[in-house]
Amino acid sequence: MAALPHDPRLDQLKSWVSGLGPAWSVDPDSCTPASADASFRRYFRVSTANAAHPTAIVMDAPPAHEDCRPFIHVAALFGAAGVTVPTVLAQDLEQGFLLLADLGSQTYLSRLDDSSASAMYADAAVALVRIQAATRAGELPAYDRALLQRELDLFPQWYIAKHLGATLTDAQQADLREVMDVLLANILAQPQVYVHRDYHSRNLMVLPGGANPGVLDFQDAVIGPITYDAVSLWRDAYIEWDEEQQLDWLIRYWERARKAGLPVNADFGEFYRDFEWMGLQRHLKVLGIFARLYHRDGKDGYLANLPLVLKYTRQVAGRYTELRKLIRLLDALEGAASPAGYTF
């Protein structure tokens, strides 16, 4: 069996935790991988002698690629909103290390089933409303047109060109730009709140003793469209629910948000259209990201999730006249027929 390659960065991390002092007495040899990440960040679980934190998580965020400061800032914002997030126990921004409270290893994805889902999603909706209700201008970057467009551009660059190996005609490029412009006009007109950006089953944790969910991976939070995190939650790339069930959970969230004074559209039909169009932007982005993770980064685990994301994409694009040129484009690229579904 071949030896694992030497990991100088891991050696650096172990040296850092060893020097945290007697209040922690971290055992560097206890360091084990805690989770995978689609970025350059890595997470390790370590044992400590601290009675309040017998285990802790070390975030490894190489400064050349990642910045720990947004994580620290958003953790404070979301924590102040009454949401369970990992407490920052120690930090070294120069080296790119954080010691974090351990929220365990039970993700929502690992525990969701037909019997548990409604209660778990109700908890997630409560936490989401708290995050959104805490919105204050100037605390987070804007989810502006430039960022939304850069995300959309991942779809033709990585999914169409790289993954499918296709080149769009001038007419197809024009059709895609038209659909993107329609989406962006709607999205930018939506009420603006704090947006986690990856509020889904892999980033929500089941905690012992309640206070669910524990919320992770929020360092890219912005101020943006109010429907975004609801799309991430109920049109999750990693788990699928019947659309009637999605609607039930979404209505319950919408009612909770209205009672909390959040600026959701007073007409649920219009809110649902905003939710769907926001979802289409997200799913086009995700198709591009998953393709990039495979072709550029060698991470093939996300390929299994492409069919569900493409299904969401087709469902929404096929329902609205303004978006149907995208169906024509997908059919031309993949030679597939449009699925039946609801129409609005």
From TrEMBL:
<keyword id="KW-0067">ATP-binding</keyword>
<protein>
    <submittedName>
        <fullName>N-acetylmuramate/N-acetylglucosamine kinase</fullName>
        <ecNumber>2.7.1.221</ecNumber>
    </submittedName>
</protein>
<dbReference type="Pfam" id="PF01636">
    <property type="entry name" value="APH"/>
</dbReference>
<dbReference type="InterPro" id="IPR011009">
    <property type="entry name" value="Kinase-like_dom_sf"/>
</dbReference>
<keyword id="KW-0808">Transferase</keyword>
<keyword id="KW-0547">Nucleotide-binding</keyword>
<dbReference type="GO" id="GO:0016301">
    <property type="term" value="F:kinase activity"/>
</dbReference>
<feature type="domain" description="Aminoglycoside phosphotransferase">
    <location>
        <begin position="31"/>
        <end position="258"/>
    </location>
</feature>
<dbReference type="InterPro" id="IPR002575">
    <property type="entry name" value="Aminoglycoside_PTrfase"/>
</dbReference>
<dbReference type="GO" id="GO:0005524">
    <property type="term" value="F:ATP binding"/>
</dbReference>
<keyword id="KW-0418">Kinase</keyword>
